[in-house]
Amino acid sequence: MPSIDSQCIGPEHPLRRELHNELHARPSLYFEGDIDVWHLAIVDGERAPEVPERLQRLADASKTADGRHGIAAFEGGRLKWELHTEFLTLTYTTAAVDSCTPPAAFVRLRDEVDGQTVTAVRVLVRNVENGNIGRKPSAPSSRRRWAEATRKCTPTFA
Question: Which residue from 70, 93, 94 is spatially nearest to 82, judged by alpha carbons?
């Protein structure tokens, strides 16, 4: 990485190169179409939990040399893991479904990790046609069904 021209933006931070390399070493998770994205952050006391051993052995895993960050096909979806100093994140993408229940494969993987979940998020990624997807329906009966479905969908991990 070239040096920063300190006259242009000021002196270079001593960790700039290390942080740059860390951020760019992590693989990116790409997807298209209607996808459900499940994301967890897990802590284990004052440290990050261990990355489950089986993730290190996944055949098509693209990962950093130390295995702290990776992405791979995983039981019908794609999985990304990132081991930070304080926590482990797991992000799992699967084809879109109507169920609010986390995929069984992701739940089983979570069960392999010691620690407590501090973040649990499900993101629904949907293609938009004519600007209609994701908007609250206008007809009263449709609005009622939409509201009921929204209330019912509170995913939980055991």
Answer: 70
Q: Return all residues near 141 (Cβ < 8 A) that are at least 6 apart.
A: none
Q: Is 135 helix (H, G, I), strand (E, B) or coil?
A: coil
User: What are the tens digits of pLDDT across the range 26-52?
Assistant: 667 888 888 999 999 999 988 889 999
Nearest of 94, 95, 109 to residue 42 by alpha carbon: 109
Answer whether 45's CB lies under 8 Å from 84's CB: no
Please give the model's pTM, rounded to 2 decimal places. 0.70
| The token pair that represents 127 in the structure block | 């293609």
Please give the DSSP secondary-structure letter assigned to residue 63. Answer: E
Residue 155: which of 94, 74, 112, 113 has the closest Cα? 94
